[in-house]
């Protein structure tokens, strides 16, 4: 250490009067490396996100080409479905493959999602739910067969947050798609709907 004449102490070999080797006000050399590393990490994450989006587009977007357009045209030509209730077995017929109409159930309500065939059709990202009860999958954000039950699913093991999610999905489907009936519990008898009730409810949805 040496006195530089104005009362400050400087380190031997340092010409700037400050402590360390980076100069007054400059970050240490290591800090620049950290900032550079963070920038590279952010750029890498952005590139991965863009790649994932592109792969999703290739996987699902290209599938709604000529075949997808034909399915959407066919869906638009279908008459509005009359109100009725469904057992699980009856619901499974409407999977977009065996039947061009696509139905799914959410929280005990059955919706006609045929106009959303690019999402719920056999090749769509949510096609696994076509003709099935989608409640558990939507509540748990699970898009594989673990979310499906072959027997009636009363959802009694879901927690409060998951049940709230199911109700929110139900409201979204009510706003966007036609409600066509109830999903029947085992042994439950279907309701008899009159044409007047059916027309009134469809008008209310519109």
Give a description of the structure.
The protein has 206 residues and is mostly helical. The protein has a domain at 67-189: Cytochrome b5-like heme/steroid binding domain (Flavocytochrome B2, Chain A, domain 1, Roll), CATH 3.10.120.10. Helices cover 43% and strands 8% of the residues. The chain contains seven helices and five strands. The chain has helices at residues 29-61, 66-77, 88-92, 117-120, 135-140, 160-176, 195-205, and strands spanning 2-3, 9-10, 103-106, 109-112, 178-182. The strands form two sheets. The chain has a three-stranded antiparallel sheet, with helices on one face. It has a two-stranded antiparallel ribbon with strand order 1-2. Strand 3 and strand 4 form a beta hairpin. It is globular and about 75 Å long. The protein starts with a strand and ends with a helix.
Helix and strand arrangement:
Layout: E1 2-3, E2 9-10, H1 29-61, H2 66-77, H3 88-92, E3 103-106, E4 109-112, H4 117-120, H5 135-140, H6 160-176, E5 178-182, H7 195-205
The level of helicity is 40-55%
Class of the domain at 67-189, according to the CATH hierarchy?
Alpha Beta
Largest sheet: 3 strands, antiparallel
Q: Note the beta-strand portion.
A: 5-15%
CATH level 3 topology of the domain at 67-189? Flavocytochrome B2, Chain A, domain 1
What is the overall silhouette?
globular
First-residue to last-residue Cα separation: 85 Å
Give the total of beta strands: 5
Tally of helical segments = 7
Strand order of the largest sheet: 3-4-5
Mean pLDDT: 78
Quick one: CATH superfamily of the domain at 67-189?
Answer: Cytochrome b5-like heme/steroid binding domain
Classification by helices and strands: mainly alpha
Region (Disordered): 1-27, 185-206
Transmembrane segments: 39-57
Family: Belongs to the cytochrome b5 family. MAPR subfamily.
Biased composition (Acidic residues): 189-198
């Amino acid at each position: 250490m040496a006195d530089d004449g104005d009362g400050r102490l400087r380190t031997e070999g340092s010409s700037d009067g400050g402590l360390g080797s980076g100069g007054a006000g400059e970050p240490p050399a290591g800090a620049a490396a950290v900032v550079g590393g963070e920038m590279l990490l952010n750029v890498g994450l952005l590139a991965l996100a863009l790649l994932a989006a592109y792969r999703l587009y290739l996987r699902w977007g290209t599938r709604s080409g000529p075949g997808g357009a034909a399915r959407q045209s066919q869906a638009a030509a279908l008459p509005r479905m009359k109100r009725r209730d469904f057992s699980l077995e009856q619901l499974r017929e409407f999977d977009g493959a065996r039947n061009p109409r696509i139905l799914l159930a959410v929280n005990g309500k059955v919706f006609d999602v045929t106009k959303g065939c690019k999402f719920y059709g056999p090749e769509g990202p949510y096609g696994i739910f076509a003709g099935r009860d989608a409640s558990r999958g939507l509540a748990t954000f699970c898009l594989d067969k673990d979310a499906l039950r072959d027997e009636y699913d009363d959802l009694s093991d879901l927690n409060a947050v998951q049940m709230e999610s199911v109700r929110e999905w139900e409201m979204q489907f009510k706003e966007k798609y036609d409600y066509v009936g109830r999903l029947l519990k085992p042994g439950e008898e279907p309701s008899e709907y009159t044409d007047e009730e059916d027309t009134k409810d469809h008008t209310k949805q519109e």
